Amino acid sequence: MKPLALFKSELDVFLKELSRDFDIFGPKRQKKGFLDWGKIEGLSDLDLSPGVTKTSVKSFFLPQPEVLFEFSAKTGDERAFRLKEPECPDRKRVLLGVRPCDARSIFLNSMPYKEDCYFQGNIERNIVIGLFCKTHLSTCFCTWVGGSPTSTDGMDIGVYELEDSFIFLPVSQRGEELLRGLGLREISQEEEGQLEAYKSDAPEGISEGIDIAKEFSKKSLFDLYDAQFWQEVTDPCLNCGTCTFLCPTCYCFDIQDEVLRGRGRRIRYWDSCMFPLFTLHASGHNPRGEKVKRVRNRFMHKLKYFPDRFGPISCVGCGRCVRDCPVSIDIRQVIRQFLEI
Amino acid sequence: MFTINEKITVEIRKVARDLLKKGEVSAFLGYTKGTVPMVMKPFVARRQEDAERLSWNSFCVLNLANYLPLVLKSLEPPRRPNEPPPEGPLPKVGVLVTGCWSRNMVVQIKENQIERERVKIIGISSRGMVDRKKVQALVDNNEITEVIEEDHKLIVKGHGFTREINRWDVVRDNCKSCVHPDPVIYDEVIGDLSGGRQVPKRFGDIQEIEDMDIEERWQWFQEEILSCIRCYACRNACPLCYCPTCFVDDSRPQWVGKSIDKTDTALFHILRAFHCAGRCTDCGACESACPMGIRMRLFTKKLYKDCMELYGFEPGLKIDEPLPLTTFKLEDPQDYILQQGQKGEEK
User: Which residue pairs from B221-224 have beta carbons closer than 8 angstroms and sit at least 24 positions apart in sequence?
Assistant: First the structure.
């Protein structure tokens, strides 16, 4: 199927059309000034400025919290002692303006969550319409870690932003189906020319021809684990969860029962390797009981353990952790330090 | 021509280098440049040559007292949990302090978190630190790629723009209302001390919230914490928060829900604030660390004000003064416990 086009002036109509069958979410300017995900009720809600939203797209796929099931242990309750599946919203969602880095995180996260019915259910429920990047911020580094400003990984539809129009590129089967029903027009010759000449201002790679995932796979895990640089990386760290909670590829969770007067729900909520409860054993022992071990785990997981197991690096280069770390711990520096080992 | 901060930076490096060289301290706690504009990185210089990386500017927004207990502990020989510390003096740490950070060290000393003899305190009078969120707002949230600081202005650059901003306009709210910019305890001073500041409406921001009616105030509070992601950056940036297990982390028993339920998040912020009552110096590290722009400093500042009005107490000003919440005096206000006419007065 060929790409289709939409004039920017028609975006309003497009959103209305889309909202008949879907709840639309996209980047929205928040009261505090930053961009974050919000429900798009009309054109004025949507803000497609360059750069990523404050929080990542992961909250749609790994909701904070995800209800796994509900239960009652109350005698007399009709459904007592039987698990009840959580209620599912009946309307599907469209996520608009998902940047290639965020979209790639969905692709990466589905590797460990391949057999997880909740995650896969959320993939089913959310259609991803990506937006390719024209410009990058100084904290962007997707090209270091296997992504690109025009990567379609994790997208159902990819969108190029041209001068006066948007070009919709179908990526997945269901993306194609959705596009068919939206009454978009064919691309004009002029647009075809513009598309041909479409250049995104991609962030520079770390250095010519270096594939970080490949480089790291050659390195000994123990050399990296025992490297000298961890102490200095760790010194300023507050062990807060800002990096892990804003990160699109930090997917660790914990599970708890929340019970009130005999009725409750089992939830899965975000955990962070920065937190003291993370990997705390029932015995009281914690293999990551000190700050340096926690910090090391975060980087080793992304840059070594994950690629050793699944292939790609578990980082998409969105730069959120770089931008919002209160003490300016920069994963790009850690990557450089890894290369030197 | 050097700016004030450049001069201070040169001095800091010199002092740190000398202390490390003489072996008077085993580590020096300061700041180094971060990789993004307007974010400084707390830095532990352990070798003499590390001193050259120390730096000082208006973006040193975190409280270095927060790092002190851990850095001190890292220098002690390893020992089992209940083993007493070894005989003889333990290694010292040099540390930079401004007014509020030094007051937090006073609190830490009083609460037995650090020992005065083990810290070499280098004082700097604070000119007020800059709130990067304010700078960001002034350039319509466009990306800032470089910030050059002069004594009284910031030159802010981004893609296709350069703007000059008056430094004082973007100084943090807590610094603007601060009356104690000079360090309270110190061994050496870099630069000149200010001799204190006068502020017309010290608690103006709190007064505004107090003037709301209950409904309005509850609304305001809920909206303020709406975007909280429970990352605990505020708590972890705070030098007062040193409990081995925080009440929000505890799971046996569990006091607070772990997810972002509205009630749980509100409970976290209210309890965090109350735990800081009579101890918080309004250093503003919590607010500066928050990635979501929540002004949780206002919660603790309200309690600061209450403590001052009820007990005439300001935290961390005097090293030999008892803490208000561990002391009882007969003249303490007790209206909230006792009804009128029950105060044991003779009728």
Answer: B221/B266, B222/B262, B222/B266, B224/B294, B224/B295, B224/B296, B224/B298
Closest C-alpha among B296, B252, B251, B293 to residue B274: B296
* Strand partners of residue A22: A92
Query: What is the DSSP track for A106-149?
Result: HHHHTTTTTT-HHHHHHHHHEEEEEE--SS--TT--GGGTT--T
Chain B residues within 8 A of A291 when measuring between CB atoms? 70
At residue B158 the predicted structure's pLDDT band, cuts being 50, 70 and 90, is very high
Q: Among all chains, which residue has been given the structure tokens 């090293």?
A: B319
Residue type (1 letter), B109: I
At B24 the pLDDT is: 97
CB-based contacts of A81, cutoff 8 Å, min separation 6: A71, A72, A73
Residue A216, SS3? helix
Q: A134-148, A272-286, B179-193, B332-346: which range is least confident on average?
A: B332-346
Q: How far apart are CA B235 and CA B245, in angstroms?
A: 12
Question: Would an 8 Å CB–CB cutoff place A55 in contact with chain B?
Answer: yes
Residue A245 has its nearest CB partner, among B40, B229, B288, at: B229
Cα separation of B132 and B136, whole Å? Answer: 6
| Positions of chain A with pLDDT lower than 50, given as ranges | none
Interior CA angle at A48 toward A44 and A50, to 5°?
Answer: 145
Q: What's the pLDDT score for residue A19?
A: 95
Query: Could you give the ipTM of this predicted complex?
Result: 0.94
Q: Is the pTM of this model over 0.90?
A: yes
Size of interface A-B (CB pairs under 8 A): 116
Task: State the pLDDT at residue B347.
Answer: 45
Of B35, B36, B291, the CB nearest to A242: B291
Is the separation of the CB atoms in A52 and A136 below 8 Å? no
Cβ atoms within 10 Å of A291's Cβ, excluding its own: 17
Q: Does A122 touch chain B (CB under 8 A)?
A: no
In 3D space, the residue among B204, B224, B212, B196 whose CA is nearest the CA of residue B287 turns out to be: B224
d(CA A68, CA A85): 7
- Residue B57 — pLDDT band, cuts 50, 70, 90? very high
Residue with tokens 């005065």: B116
